[in-house]
Amino acid sequence: MPNASQLSNEVSKILHLKLLGKTVEEISKLLNRSKSMIYRVLTRKTSYEPKPRSGRPRVTDILSDRRIQRMASSQKMSVCEITRASRLQISKNTVQRRIIESGFMIHVKISRRLPLSKLHISKRLKWARNHIPYGDKWMAVLFSDDKKWNLDGPDGNIKYWHDLRKEHRSFFSRQSGGGSVMVWSVVGFNGQAGLAFLGGRQNSPKYTEILENHLMPFSENTGGRN
């Protein structure tokens, strides 16, 4: 059962997420709590006021707490790095507690692919709408792409302190490497080519060879070289 401090921090997160426009279901998934618990917090008429407890005095003041929280929010720093940068005689556990006490910081796994921005989405939709009346011209268009599967798990499992008031961070994943399999194919109006399995790291000569052995024969069978 969470203590008073943990409960207060969790309630702060729930209320902040609600102000950001999150639904009960979204808050439930973000905080790994039941929807009924989230609903009780949001519909409670009286505020949660944890009782003060006796114990050791805090080793940090308000200014130090805010500095720690700013470093976690605005910089790509781990708890260990923040502990060293703070130049305070405090432990990693203390730093972690101060970050959580902010009410708007959660420790999450960083996304492995860059999400589409609103600008990307609008441009893609515009391109699709502009090409709806393309007609028979689509018969001369081919789309090719490659895909990689890791045989030994993901390339990385990187976590960071995410500020709920900001966009999620993400990083590019590797396109090729050990312990994985990579395939390439092409699709057109009249069908698709078989999968081409790519071995090793890809470079310009290897990719040119793929196009010669797979793309060119497919394009000739679906409408010529033009």
Briefly characterize the structure.
The chain is an alpha+beta fold. The chain has 8 helices and 6 strands; from the N terminus they run ααααααβαβββββα.
Description of the molecule:
This protein has 226 residues and is an alpha+beta fold. It has 8 helices and 6 strands; from the N terminus they run ααααααβαβββββα. It has helices at 4-19, 24-31, 35-43, 62-74, 79-86, 92-101, 118-130, 204-221, and strands at 105-109, 142-150, 159-163, 180-188, 191-192, 196-198. Strands 2, 4, 5 and 6 form a 4-stranded antiparallel beta sheet that branches. Strands 1-3 form a two-stranded antiparallel sheet. A hairpin with a 2-residue loop joins strand 4 (180-188) and strand 5. Helix 2 (24-31) crosses helix 3 (35-43), helix 4 (62-74) crosses helix 5 and helix 5 (79-86) crosses helix 6. The longest helix has 18 residues, at 204-221.
List keywords for this structure.
226 residues; two-stranded antiparallel ribbon; RNaseH_sf
Question: Which residues sit in consecutive blocks of at least 5 with pLDDT less than 50?
Answer: none
User: How many domains?
Assistant: 3
Distance between the terminal alpha carbons, to the nearest Å?
Answer: 69 Å
Write down the CATH class of the largest domain.
Alpha Beta
CATH fold field value of the largest domain: Nucleotidyltransferase, domain 5
Mean pLDDT, all residues: 77
